[in-house]
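Just curious. Invent one:
>
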Amino acid sequence: MKTLILVLTLAAAFASAASSENKKLIASELIAVSKSEDWRTPSQDNLLYMDLPSGRVIIELAPDYAPRHVTRIKDLARQKYWDGLAIVRVQDNYVVQWADPNAEKADLKRKFKGSDEKLPPELDVSLKELKVVFNKMPDTDTYADEVGFTNGMAAGRDKAKQRTWLLHCYGAVGVGRDTAPDSGDGTELYAVIGHAPRHLDRNVTVVGRILQGVEFLSSLPRGHGSLGFYDNEKNEKPLPIKSIRQGSEVPTNERVNLEVLKTDTPLFKDMLRARRNRKEEWFHFQAGRIDPCNFPILIREKAGFLRL
């Protein structure tokens, strides 16, 4: 028994020493010493491959937060609904939106199976129903009682009402709608390409976020019509979409093997500490806090590091 106690004590001491040592490292150094168990591989079933003439955008869906919309979006991808449709709106410092350019014309708009079924808005979800761990940040937030991450996606919580939701950070993907909350059927999607429009939180259904290729959306020419829609009178044409596929429908040799940093590990806590207190040589002032939308999406291909 004494031997076992000694072993456990030594193990705890080494773990404490390692943790203490990690607290001295900056973010890039922490990533360099990360282990395989600090990363997760998103399911191809929850990925969308959006192919544009300029490149590929990969979106991770969030079925825990918007199960009915995610199911609809996957079904639309399998039906090849978006193939040949277009990006119709690019509003500077705001969003890129893709849809059927003829969506307002009943005789011309593209039909899909299930189009008669309305979807209720999924603006937030009960904490009791959430199946993924919420990793709380220590900092206060303007729009939520608490903020943090679930599977790397920035989220907010209202503890009194026991509700949680995904935040409109850069790269977030949501469902376009009209005034009625249930007017978004999943055919019109948008991605945030500017400063986080957090006033949209809990007003629009967020279905996921971009893992890779956001630059192919954020660099598109801006529309000059109302709200950034392309204006035919100014000879602005919607930009074509080659295809949108569910990852599990993409041939294996064409898939991208991405890993996302887990947000429920000791390493992530050290990463959060490093980002709240920037110790890199360039920084001469440490804020001691961070906004959830300023915490970078940490992804890499299994063959190597992608971005920090």
